Amino acid sequence: MSKSPVTVIGLGPMGAKMAETFLKNGRPTTVWNRTASKAAPLVEQGATLAATPADALGASELIVISQTDYPAMYDSLGGETDALKGRVLVNLSSGSPDELRRADAWAAERGAELLTGGIMVPPPGIGRPGSYVFYSGVETTLDRHREALLELGDATFVGTDPGLSMLYYQAQLYLFWSTLTSYMHAVALVGSAGVSAEQFRPFAATTVSSLAGDGPMGFLRIVTEHIDAGLTTDDPNALRMQAVGADHVIEASREAGIDTTGPTALRNLFWRAVDEGYGGGGLSSVIEAIRNPAP
After folding, report:
1. How far does the chain reach from its first CA to its final CA, in angstroms?
2. Any idea which GO molecular function terms this record carries (predicted)?
3. What distance in Å separates the CA atoms of residue 162 and residue 143, rounded to the nearest whole number?
C-alpha cells in the first residue's frame, strides 16, 4: 500500500532534513518555503514544490511545519482560511508555552487541528536511532498520523495542554545547555593551570554518569525522591555548607582570570534559599528558590 502524503512547510536546516527523511522513507512529500529556491535539492530527490501555501495545504492532510517561530506560521498560512479546514498542523517550531496555546486556538478557529511538538535532536539526528519528539494536543490525532511522524523519531505524547510539549522541550534544552556550559567552565578553570580538556574529561564523565546512575550515588534519582516526597530541613550535607563552597568556586574562577557569571548566579540562588530558611536542608532545597523567584 502506498504511504499517505505529507506536506512540509519551512525548509531551513530542520525542515529540509524532515522532508528528506520522509522522501527516503518513500512517503509522497510536498514542500513549500517562503524562499522557493531552497526547495531545489528536495525536488531533485522527488519532492513536489507547491506554488502557493494553499497548494501546499491542499496536497496533504498532514502538514509538518518547521519555521523560525509561530508568527511565521501566521504570516505563511493566515490568509488560507478555506485551505486550512480539515488539516492537521504539526508545528515543530520553537516558542513559548503560552504562544503554543494561542496557536491552538488560532488553528481551531480556522477548522484545523494543531499538534505542537518539540524535536529533541539537531538536524543530522532526525529519523535516526535515539531521535524523539514531544507532542501535545489531541492524542487520537497523533495516533492517526503516528506512522508518518515516527519516521522523524519516537513520538512521545505528554498531554492535552498544547503548551506542554514546549515545556518539556525547553526544560530539556536548559538541562543540556547548562550541563555542557558548566563543563566548559570547569575546563577553563583547570585549564588556567595548564590542564587540557582531554585530561579533565574522564573526571567530568564520572560526575555526569553518577548523576544519572541508579546506585547510591545516583544524585538525579536522590534529588527527584526528595522533591516528590517533600523537602527536609535537616540534612548532613546542608545547603548552607554548599553555598559556602559556591563562594569558593567564584574565588577560584577570579584567581584563574575566567568569567564568573555562571557560578555567581548559582551562588546567589543557593544563598537565597539559605536566607529563606532552607540552609539546613540538602541541595534539593534550592528548588524552593527556583519556584519562588525574587521580586
Report:
1. 60
2. NADP binding; oxidoreductase activity
3. 16
